[in-house]
Structure formats: C-alpha cells, structure tokens
Specification:
It contains 5 helices and 11 strands; from the N terminus they run E-E-E-H-E-E-E-H-H-H-E-H-E-E-E-E. By secondary structure, the chain is of the alpha/beta class. The site of adenosine-5'-triphosphate has 13 residues, from strand 1, strand 2 and helix 1. It comes from Conexibacter arvalis.
C-alpha cells in the first residue's frame, strides 16, 4: 500500500514555564492510500498534538511530515482559509455561528473559497448523501442529535474530497450503535479508496473497524497485536511501528 501520510522521527515537547512535557518521542508511521488508521491513548497521551502535526497545523520540534511525498510544512505550500493544506480534511464537531443556517449551506462553506455558490451546494448535497445525511439538507444545527451532527461534520470535512481525513475522537459522546455507523462509514469510504483516514480515540474497542490500530503512550507509538476471541479483545503491544 503506497504511503499517503508519513511521519518520520517526529518529536514534540510542550513547555509550561520550567516544566517540559515530552509528548512525542521519535514517532514514525505512515498511513497508506485507502487506509483507515486509528490511534488510541489515554487522556493527555498526545493524540491531538500528533494529529495537529499530521495536519500541518503545528510544527514538530524534529522530524519530517510528508503528504503524498511533499513536505507538509514547506514554505510556499498553499494553504486554505482554515489553515489546512490541500488534500487534508479535518472533522470539526462544532456548528455554524448562524443557528438558522441550513446544513446544505453549512457543508458547502469550505468550497466557497474556490467554487461558485451553486456548484458548492451541489457538491455539499452529494457529501451529505455519502455521509447518509441526505435528509438533513434543510435541517438547522440546534435541531440535530449528536450522531446527526457527526454525520454533518463528516460531510463538511470531506466535501472537498480530501485524500486524507483527520478526526480527533470523532465518536465521543455517541452510543454504541451510532459509533458503529460513523466508523462504518469511514471504513466503507477507505475500502472504496475514496480517501484515507486517521482518527484518534480514547479507548480501543471503538476502533475495531479500522484497518490498522496504534497506541500512543509515554511519547511512543506502538502497534498492538490484535486477536479476537469471541467478544474479547486481546491486545499485546509487541513492536515499535516503523515506516
Ligand atoms: N500548546 C500546549 N502547551 C503546553 N502544553 C500542551 C499544549 N498542548 C497540549 N499540551 C499538553 O500536552 C499533553 C498532550 O496533550 P494532547 O491534547 O495532545 O493529548 P490528548 O491525548 O489529545 O488528550 P485528550 O484525550 O484529553 O484530548 C497534555 O499534558 C497537555 O496538557
């Protein structure tokens, strides 16, 4: 599977006053084309830090991040209004500032930078359909359930057809059935090679639909061995992931 996103020897230390917190210590991994990868780790393990570096939103202290072979932090690389480079979508679970905005227009917003209004709305409708949220085109954010909001957020994050979708704990607060739906959609989209996805989750069972699961702990990224025995999941972190 050719690599789409590659992190190579990425280090990041957060500093608060005199306290230095090594959050990422020489982290290397890749996400392949059409791959659905998930990283789990406890609260404060560094998942958001890792995802922001993978999105090119923050710079690592050391190491290299490439998307499709190109350096994500290279000066001159074109960025959009949301700060993301072309080719990356970020699932954001917050709604529009205007509470009366129909979801079709909300999903179309990221396209308006470059696409005429009518075409943006057409593509937004298609994105909502792909996210199984076609019925929500006229709905307003305050009317939606948490699960519907995630589906709309998924449509909005993918409306530009990014090569890579990033999502920080996208199923937080959802019930089992709703988590299944969201993770199933990501699995389908990646299986059909529409995009790759990298998500974070705080606990392991949520990510079983992913092609690849990694854990982040103490600054290190590990790839656990997974075995299913009946309903039980056995995980043994047994090797350091390398590109
Ligand atoms: N900008 C920052 N400055 C200083 N410390 C930070 C900064 N961002 C994160 N940290 C700290 O780095 C550690 C990792 O934070 P991060 O948000 O990446 O973890 P996380 O795994 O996403 O946590 P959660 O599951 O709670 O979202 C935490 O101890 C956090 O307090």
């Amino acid at each position: 599977m050719p690599a789409l996103l590659s992190l190579d020897g990425v280090c990041k230390t957060h500093r608060r006053g005199r306290h230095a917190n090594v959050v990422l210590d020489r982290v290397s991994f890749h996400v392949g084309v059409g791959e659905f990868a998930a990283i789990f780790g406890r609260r404060g393990a560094g998942k958001t830090t890792l995802l922001r570096i993978a999105a090119g939103l923050d710079a690592p202290d050391a190491g290299r991040v490439t998307l499709d072979g190109r350096d994500l932090l290279a000066t001159g690389r074109r960025r959009r209004l949301d700060g993301l480079p072309d080719g990356i979508g970020w699932l954001v679970r917050s709604g529009p500032l205007t509470r009366s905005m129909p979801m079709l227009d909300f999903v179309a917003m990221p396209l308006l930078e470059r696409v005429p209004h009518r075409e943006a709305r057409r593509r937004a409708g298609a994105a909502l359909e792909r996210a199984t949220a076609g019925a929500l085109v006229d709905a307003r954010w305050p009317e939606l359930s948490d699960a519907e909001r995630v589906l709309v957020a998924l449509a909005r994050a993918t409306v530009r057809r990014p090569a890579l979708l990033l999502a920080d704990d996208p199923t937080a607060g959802l019930g089992t059935r709703e988590r299944e739906i969201v993770l199933g959609l990501l699995r389908e989209a990646t299986d059909e090679n529409e995009m790759s996805a990298l998500i974070t989750v705080p606990a392991l069972p949520d990510v079983l639909r992913a092609h690849r699961v990694m854990s982040l702990s103490g600054g290190e990224l590990m790839e656990p061995t997974r075995q299913r025995t009946g309903d039980h999941l056995v995980v043994a972190a047994d090797r350091r992931e390398s590109v």
